Amino acid sequence: MNHLNETQLNEYLDKVLDDASRQQADIHLVNCKECHAELDELKRLFFTLDDLPDILLAHNLLPDVLARLPKEMQIPALWRQPAFMVQSLLTLVLIVLSMPMLTVFGEQVAAWRNAIILPAMNFPSLPEIIAQFLPLMPEFSFALPKLSFTLPSTPILPTLPINPDTNLMLTLVLLSGILWFFGNLSLLRSKPEVRE
Q1: DSSP string spanning 158-196?
Q2: Which residue among 31, 56, 140, 172 has its CA within the 20 to 30 Å range from the CA of 125?
Q3: Mean pLDDT of 110-136
Q4: CA distance 38 to 129
């Protein structure tokens, strides 16, 4: 005969067994004197533990426990990191050097907007639309109002006269590479200090 183990007996006492397992345990406890005696012993143990008085501690353990807990990692402010300073400075230098190209490009975008002409569309007026729908009332047959539009000739878009100096382009590419290199180098070297 298989006896109930201590875990099953504890689960039986705590009433956490499912219905089928509880019925099997009830049947087994009726037939098995050893398991029934062990169950009674566990019940007495639990009652004895519940009757014990609470013991007052000689001193408070909370400060010692809190002192031994790991402290949260302190993340330093981003603007104090050397990586942030270096990348910000190099980005500003790069923006200042590329301003002439950006202004030329902005002027060309404005010229493009003025050069693009949408087709002119002629819509019928409200009296014309009403005049077409009035005869339809008795007949229930109608024709849609005529819409006409004319396409203008193909607009001539201005060419982009952006011919930057080769030295300027090489300087911008070189500064971009320096920005990337030193920014990532300083980012990798600046590690947050973790207190232990």
Answers
A1: PP------HHHHHHHHHHHHHHHHHHHHHHHH-------
A2: 140
A3: 71
A4: 99
Q: Tell me the H-state helices in 52-124.
A: 62-68, 82-115
Q: Which residue's entry shows tokens 């087994």?
A: 28
Using the Cα atoms of residue 75, residue 80, residue 86 and residue 92 in order, give the sign of their dihedral: positive
CB 187 within 8 A of CB 85: no
What is the arithmetic mean of pLDDT over 80-93? 75
Residue 167 identity (one-letter amino acid):
N
- Angle of the 19-31 helix axis to the 6-14 helix axis, nearest 10: 120
Question: How far, in Å, are 8, 9, 44, 105, 121 from residue 3 at the CA level?
Answer: 10, 10, 20, 88, 95
Looking at residue 65, its pLDDT comes to 84
Helix axes 19-31 and 33-51, enclosed angle (nearest 10): 110
pTM of the model: 0.30
Q: Is 11 exposed, middle or buried (0-12, 13-18, 19+ CB in 10 A)?
A: middle
**For 134-138, which contacts have Cβ atoms below 8 Å and span 24 or more sequence positions?**
none
* Residue 188 CB neighbour total at 10 angstroms: 9
d(CA 90, CA 23): 77
